[in-house]
Design brief:
3-stranded mixed beta sheet, about 350 residues, alpha/beta, 4-stranded mixed beta sheet
């Protein structure tokens, strides 16, 4: 494998599988475990319609429990692989591998340091997850490269062609001692990218990732960007997301054209014991032949699914109930990590 050929594929490129970790009583989901398992079962059913699913479980008892849950939901267990490993929590978008590919069929598991979103939560087991999965043979002969620099998979978007999209709010929190130029150089070097596009605006109340890009704006095929908008002028998110939309409109493709923008509708505020939850429709997951879109039981769900489908033509649109997820400050994309075709 030659380093110069490495690149970070776009999510819409062919995939081998989706990787998730199942919630259990030892995770932060314990208080509402039954509710969140309904989302995980729905997610597993949706993914396995289109491709394999790899499920990390804490022990044999949890594995048997999950198998029973999935079997009861009619999931084809021949498309599910279980791997027993310890983990702190289930946000595999951020603790899982960022996989680079090369033109010769090789892969590199880029294993950045996971700090529990800047030290907010314990993360020792999650930080060891990529190495554990590699040791278990989940990724075949893929090279494993550890990078001692904090970065979460939800903090970056790739168009598969050398452009990375990210947010200043997140990375300056992780690396306050570094300049934008220094961080851009690290991202370009470690991800083998040509350029880094930064957003200075955009956030969601109830998101403790410090404005991960996958809650705000997503690359889509054909030089498109799908982003979370807010049309409610009375909502305190309005001005910030309006400014983010203006930043996106000012971005240019590598050949100097504006991106085709797809603004997503705004869900009505969802509160939990007075706390605002981050109901982002941008946090969708692309799989082979389909796109899985969060649903929150809001009147905007259907329009969000339509717009995401429009931005990803030729794919089946499947809505997945995600209201239980946002209680723990994330959504559908946050709990998953896709693996590129050929790796598993």
């Amino acid at each position: 494998m030659t380093d110069h050929a490495l690149r970070l594929p776009a999510e819409w490129e062919p995939q081998a599988a989706v990787l998730i970790a199942w919630p259990h009583a030892g995770t932060d989901w314990a208080e509402r475990l039954a509710a969140v398992e309904t989302t995980y079962v729905a997610l597993a059913a949706a993914v396995t319609r289109f491709q394999p699913l790899i499920v990390v479980v804490a022990d044999a008892a949890l594995c048997a429990h999950v198998q029973a849950q999935l079997r009861g939901a009619g999931v084809d267990l021949s498309r599910v692989r279980f791997v027993e490993l310890p983990y702190d929590d289930t946000w595999l978008r951020d603790s899982g591998p960022i996989t680079l590919v090369d033109g010769g069929g090789g892969f590199q598991l880029t294993d950045f340091r996971f700090t529990g979103w800047g030290g907010k939560f314990g993360a020792e087991q999650d930080d060891a997850l990529v190495a554990g999965l590699a040791h278990a043979g989940v990724f075949g002969q893929a090279a494993h490269k550890r990078i001692d620099w904090a970065l979460e998979g939800g903090g970056i978007e790739s168009d598969g062609d050398g452009s990375i999209l990210t947010t200043w709010r997140c990375l300056v929190q992780r690396h306050p001692e570094q300049s934008r130029e220094e961080m851009s150089a690290i991202l370009r070097g470690s991800l083998h990218a040509d350029r880094v596009l930064w957003l200075d605006h955009g956030y969601l109340e109830g998101d403790d990732t410090d404005a991960h890009i996958d809650t705000l704006a997503r690359f889509a095929p054909g030089d498109r960007i799908v982003f979370q908008a807010c049309d409610d002028t009375a909502d305190h998110h309005h001005d910030e997301l309006q400014r983010m939309g203006e930043e996106l409109a000012a971005l240019r493709t590598t050949d100097g054209r504006p991106y085709r923008l797809h603004p997503l509708p705004w869900a009505q505020p969802i509160l939990d014991e007075g706390r605002r939850l981050a109901a982002s429709y941008a946090n969708y997951l692309i799989v082979n032949g389909a796109v899985l879109v969060p649903a929150y039981g809001d009147s905007a769900d259907a329009e969000a699914a339509r717009i995401v489908g429009e931005a990803h033509p030729g794919r089946v649109v499947v809505q997945v109930p995600c209201r239980p997820l946002i209680w723990q400050n994330g959504s559908l994309h946050c709990i998953t990590m896709q693996l590129p075709a050929g790796i598993a």
